Amino acid sequence: MNFNIPKNLDEAISLQKEFAKKVVVKDVIKKITYVSGIDVHYRDEKIILGYVVLLYSSGEVVDKKIKVFTHKVSFPYIPEFLCFSEGPYIIKFISTLNWLPDVFILDGHGIAHPRQLGLASYVGVMLDIPTIGCAKKILYGKYTGKLGTKKGSYVDIIDENTNEVIGCALRTKDNVKEVIVSVGHKVSLDTAKNIVLTLSKYRIPQPIRLAHSLAKNYSIYAE
User: Fold this and answer.
1) Does the pLDDT of residue 42 top 70, yes or no?
2) Which terminal residue of the chain, N or C, has fewer Cβ atoms less than 10 Å from its own Cβ?
């Protein structure tokens, strides 16, 4: 598979703008049964990917996997360009799966990005699968109001240049810092928000939280 790893930042920006045109911001999923989370953890020269699948109706874990990569992509780790530093590993891993869950939640942004192509959107477009971006902090855009303190409270995030809604800040637990949710690909913002909220016991939604723990614990205890 051609990962389109850019040679420099100018080429990276150009590729992001090109792929952003292919993002679908409406629902194509008729029924959501399985939701997965993927997180990438770095340790020394290794890239450790954690993958967890949950039953949407109950939150029960039905599958989990670890994948360790030892060959690093040459593109540097820069927040606006995670699609090129982490994306290739995620894409390669998903391409090996025997079956795909209905939607993937990635620890990163979707269209809530300066060029509307964060990690979640890139992976979604490259593999033509439904993805959601869920990040710990805002990368781009502006809150449209004050966020309430109760679980389920949210405010839209807009692109200040176009006034287009590109995501939302969502409170996943009472009095706990919000997460940033945005469309990755083939999922509407309302659906993305509802999925993240439904699968959140703590601040970080369970699919990502468990995938992160899986990868981190492996990196600590693996020889």
Assistant:
1) yes
2) C
